[in-house]
Each structure stands twice: as structure tokens, then as C-alpha cells.
Amino acid sequence: MHIMEGFLPLIWCIFWYLVSLPFVIYGVLQIKKIFDEHPEQKMILAVSGAFVFVLSSLKMPSVTGSSSHPTGTGIGSILFGPTVTAVLATITLIFQAVLLAHGGITTLGANVFSMGIVGPIAGWLAFKGMRNVKAGMIPSVFVAAVLADWVTYVVTSIELSLAFPGTNIVSTFLTFAGVFAATQVPLAIAEGILISIFFDFLTSNRPKMIASLLKEKSRVSVTDTPGAAQ
Amino acid sequence: MSENKNNNKIWLYALGFLILIGILALPFLLKPSAEFAGADDQGSDIIMENAPGYTPWFSSFWEPPAETESMLFATQAAIGAIIIGYFVGYIRGRSATGKAEE
Fold it and tell me: What does the alpha-carbon distance between residue A66 and residue A213 come to, in Å, rounded to a whole number?
């Protein structure tokens, strides 16, 4: 989903920076609050960021015959919400833009918006929605992680077709989505499985902390007895 | 948690990882001759087809050589993996010593 350096016209670079900035600033304030008020959550926050770091560094092959990365934003979205996850994604994207020439500084705003904001919002809403209709914990985590990943690539396709609409913006979007969103389907499912396993491990070993995080951030309660959500 | 339940869980985790490996192996079975080029680059190709007059107006300050790039990608993964591994070991250790949750 990385839009490469220089591949967005200046006006769109500025536009996406302006759209993303408030989310990231709010996320930084939220993280400061976590550090001040809940230092015991710091380690899980670091682990959420670590997932973004690991998964977004892996270029995985897809059945479409091309390769792409997962995003790793699912855990952060579920436990800390989209704005904190936006900060985690921004750190990762800066690392990749500066050290790896992957993505870019000019396209950072657009890439943060897709990977750090809309993807995580989709995952977070899906998790809340599913828990509210009493779906099991692990199925909800799975769907949230898949969506946080996949929606990122749908948004990238939208961003690119807005900047380069061609003759027909809809068919342009379908062309971009045919590359990004189609390639991403199996990778998003793979990511969903991995994050579900990790989340199950977390809830079995840190049930109280996860319950309080979920109550606070997603306003859902953990009514399942541990392990019953299999 | 009973030992039996723990064992079942290990099998479930193993099944999950098996499916994961299957998803990653399947492309090579279905499309053995594909190049598996990065979707990011393909995206840029579509831009060039769609807007032939467009020239990227900014390029990276520094682009690492291929070998360095793979080292940096591995470093990125390693940093994340160390943090996850530390955390998993930490909470496993605490449960083993009976201090599951403070």
C-alpha cells in the first residue's frame, strides 16, 4: 500500500498530510496519557507497535502472482483504538520511507491515512460491532484484523484514483483495486489467523489487563470465559 | 487452566500456523512462473499508464543497495520480533512462577 515517493501530485500530498495530522496528534496525546496513567499498559502498547513493525516488513506472496505486506495494525486497533494505532503506523512508515526508500516522505500523509487511520478504524468498528452482537472473542478479533489490513489497500486504491482519475475514475479505481485489494485478500486472512492466535495467548495470560483495555477503548466487555471463544 | 485444555490449544495454534503456511505456499503451486513483483511497484506502473505525462517530482534522499535493503528489512522485523519475544517470555515466566497477573 505504499504509495512511492513522488508519486502523488503536491496538492494531494498536502491534502493527506492535513487529513492525517489531527489523528496522529490526538494519538500522541493518548499515548502520553497511557504513559502517565497506565504505565502497566506500556508493554502491551510496545507489543502492538512491534506487530506493525514485523508484519509490515514482510513481503508475502499472493495467489495473484504479486507480493505485498500485511499491516499488523489489528492488535493496536482492538486494544488501543485507531488514533494510537495511527502513531504506531506513522513510526513504521517513517522508518521505511527514510531507511528503505519504501513509501516516501511526500506520500507519508496518504500512507498514514490508509494504513494508520482508515484500516484501523474499520478493524476497531468491526470488533466493537461484532462484540456488541455477542460474537465470540476470537472470531471478532479475526474479522477486525482482516479488515484493518484489507481496508488499508482499498483506501490506497481510492487515494491513487483520486489523484490519477484517468478518463473514468470508477474504472481507474477498479484497476488499482485489482492490484492492491485483490493481492491483499489472502494476506489479510493470513494476518487475521496470526493475530487471532496471539490475541488468544494474550487473553489467556493477561485476562484482567485485556478486559480493562477492551472496556476502556472499545466499550465492550469480556464476558466470555477465557478459551470459550474458540 | 487445565492441562488438557492447554494441549487442545496447542493443537489449535498449530492448525492455525499450518493454514498460514498453506496460504503462503499456495501461490507458488498455483502460479509457479509468476514473478511475485511488489504490488507497490505495480501501482506506480498503473499511474504511468494512466497519466503518461506524470513525472515523480520528488525522489528519495537515499536508496539503499539491494543487499543493504534486505538487511534493513530484516532489522525492522528483528526489532519487532525481539519486543514480541521478550513480552511472551516475560508473561510465560510470570505464570510459571505463579505471579500470573499483578
Answer: 37
pTM for this predicted structure:
0.91
Residue-wise pLDDT for A212-223, tens only, equals 999 876 666 555
Domain co-membership, B49 together with B78:
no
Domains, chain A, ranges and CATH? 10-217 (1.10.1760.20)
Report CB contact under 8 Å: B1, A194.
no
pLDDT in tens, A75-122: 999 999 999 999 999 999 999 999 998 999 999 999 999 999 999 999
Host domain of residue B77 = 64-102
- Same domain? B41 vs B90: no
A98 touches chain B (CB under 8 A): yes
Same domain, B28 and B2: yes
Provide the edge-to-edge strand list for the sheet that holds B37-38: A60-61, A66-68, B37-38
Identity of the residue in B5, B69, B77 whose CB atom sits nearest the CB atom of A58: B77
Query: A219: phi > 0 → left, psi -120 to 50 → alpha, else beta; which?
Result: left
Residues B1 and B45 in one domain: yes
Q: Measure A215 CA to nearest chain B CA, in Å.
A: 18
Q: How far apart are CA A183 and CA B27, in angstroms?
A: 11
Are residues A118 and A127 in contact, defined by beta-carbon separation less than 8 angstroms? no
Specify the number of domains making up chain B.
2
Q: What is the ipTM of this complex?
A: 0.88
The minimum CA-CA distance between B11 and chain A, rounded to whole Å, is: 11
